[in-house]
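Render this sequence as a predicted structure.
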Amino acid sequence: QVQLVESGGGLVQAGGSLRLSCAASGRTFSRYYMGWFRQAPGKEREFVSSISRSGGSTDYADSVKGRFTISRDNFKNTVYLQMNSLKPEDTAVYYCAADLYGLGSKIYTTWSDWGQGTQVTVSS
């Protein structure tokens, strides 16, 4: 099991940028596929992005492709989500997720470990 702590959320105007970080505990971070999900009020948790264990493979939801960039630093046990050109519809609680055995499924129920979430609010 890995403990995940997100940071970097906040309030930003449309068109602005934020960088989310997710710090993981333990010495096995590089064994985990990492991902970001988000959940808006009244909606189901949805996939945002994922990154492979080495960082060599990434995936994005169509809604964020070209605007968000996921990366990881296995020496710092941290995964990042750079969010540019933010839109009001990006407003949600953003969750970091880890999966020891998976391959970055877009289905949130298949991920094993979760952070507590960080609020991102984009004003119009």
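Summary. The chain has a mean pLDDT of 96. The chain has no helices and eleven strands.
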